[in-house]
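Q: Given only this backbone (227 positions), what sequence would you predict?
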């Protein structure tokens, strides 16, 4: 394993953990603000990674996917939200779900702003190699957080994007929607692995090509603008 590969892997791991922790905390904080204190009472409004990390979903699964050479995704322990505690359950479920991806987009924008402010000083106050590593981490941080945001916006249960249809469902349709969530992992595997294998179409890659990468490019251009 080359040192550059190891550094990139380490940067990605740190970015994923930070992104997931903020993402889950945002869900918990939004639920708390909208009337459900369950997640807060269980310590989920927290920046402590141990309160959010799932040993399988956050650590083992991404490593297995990386070894398999396919798309890599991770998940944390689900944030408990009791919809009946929310002030307006259908509306607020959407807001709670949206808080996670919104927090990752905000992190990506914050990273770009910090890089923009620090870019010039980095290369004059330290060695080129160290400054480049810091900037590379910033770029990785931006891409990882945008990937977390847009991946979670896919309208497949239990991803956050699926909640956008909740306000339009009633009765049996709403019940079926919640029952579908228990099949989330097979659905994700189908989309991420089997569908590309059968069709030769990288659905996630094409989706990221029109969402994650253009926005990441704009943020990185801003980060080094005027230098």
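A: Predicted residues:
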């Amino acid at each position: 394993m080359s040192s550059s590969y190891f550094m990139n892997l380490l940067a990605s791991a740190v970015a994923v953990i930070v992104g997931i922790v903020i993402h889950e905390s945002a869900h918990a904080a939004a639920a708390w603000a909208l009337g459900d204190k369950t997640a807060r009472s269980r310590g989920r409004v927290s920046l402590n990674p141990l309160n959010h990390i799932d040993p399988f979903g956050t650590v083992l699964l991404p490593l297995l996917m990386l070894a398999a050479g396919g798309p890599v995704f991770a998940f944390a322990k689900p944030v408990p939200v009791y919809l009946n505690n929310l002030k307006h359950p259908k509306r607020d479920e959407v807001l709670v779900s949206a808080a996670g991806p919104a927090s990752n987009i905000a992190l990506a924008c914050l990273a770009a702003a910090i890089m923009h402010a620090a870019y010039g000083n980095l290369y004059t106050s330290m060695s080129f190699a160290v400054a480049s590593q810091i900037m590379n981490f910033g770029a990785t941080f931006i891409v990882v957080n945008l990937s977390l945001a847009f991946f979670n916006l896919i309208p497949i249960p239990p991803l956050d994007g699926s909640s956008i249809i909740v306000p339009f469902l009633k009765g049996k349709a709403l019940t079926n929607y919640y029952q579908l969530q228990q099949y989330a992992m097979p659905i994700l595997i189908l989309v991420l692995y089997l569908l590309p294998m059968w069709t030769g179409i990288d659905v996630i890659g094409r989706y990221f090509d029109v969402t994650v990468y253009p926005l990441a490019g704009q943020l990185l251009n801003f980060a080094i603008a005027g230098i």
